[in-house]
Amino acid sequence: MTTDTPAVDGAAEAAPAAAPCERGATVWLTGLPSAGKTTLAFALAERLRAEGHKVEVLDGDEIREFLSKGLGFSQEDRHTNVTRIGFVAEKLAANGVKVLAPVIAPYAASRAAVRERHGEHGTEFLEIHVATPVEVCSERDVKGLYAKQAAGEISGLTGVDDPYEAPESPELRLQTHGRAVAESAAELHTFLTTRGLA
């Protein structure tokens, strides 16, 4: 006795299998200003897109302009900014997008809240610590923030006169100083591969 269902109206006997739904995840790159988070995120995004992955980069500066305009840099406002980014990231990741979030997120409690939200929805969250020392960051000083802080023009610079709580147990700790961007991006790509995400 057979349980096969005959083709109807000349249709093919078996439809081609649908492509598997791509697995999404949030890759949160935390570190000091000028640590290289954004540069690394865009380099990795380019590689992932070339491989056919759906990728979004949630750049901290762009989020400040378009999603968190009006927020300051108090601990409460920073927490609000981070949790907003985390909300958007989880929604995208839950729909199969690789979300790269190069965001300072200086407070451990804020990052924990984002991780918890992902966990509640069964969405993967990977914390990557871009562990560039403050001395190197101040030499790079991509946006001139360290110079402005030293000149007394600004205050509350993360890692200098405002706290940065480095992750104690990130999924990956990256040392980017003294290395080419491509080398750091390759290390992060290899790590994602081991997690089945690349």
TrEMBL record:
Record GO biological process: hydrogen sulfide biosynthetic process; sulfate assimilation via adenylyl sulfate reduction; sulfate assimilation, phosphoadenylyl sulfate reduction by phosphoadenylyl-sulfate reductase (thioredoxin)
Annotated pathway: Sulfur metabolism; hydrogen sulfide biosynthesis; sulfite from sulfate: step 2/3
Enzyme class: transferase
Keyword Nucleotide-binding: yes
GO MF term (any one): ATP binding
UniProt GO cellular component terms: cytoplasm
Reactions accelerated catalytically: adenosine 5'-phosphosulfate + ATP = 3'-phosphoadenylyl sulfate + ADP + H(+)
Keywords tagged on the record: ATP-binding, Kinase, Nucleotide-binding, Phosphoprotein, Transferase
Record has Transcription as a keyword: no
The protein's Enzyme Commission number: 2.7.1.25
Matching Pfam families: APS_kinase
Binding site for ATP: G31, L32, P33, S34, A35, G36, K37, T38
APS kinase domain mapped to chain residues: 23-174
PANTHER family: SULFATE ADENYLYLTRANSFERASE
General function of this protein: Catalyzes the synthesis of activated sulfate.
Family under the similarity heading: Belongs to the APS kinase family.
Official protein name in the record: Adenylyl-sulfate kinase
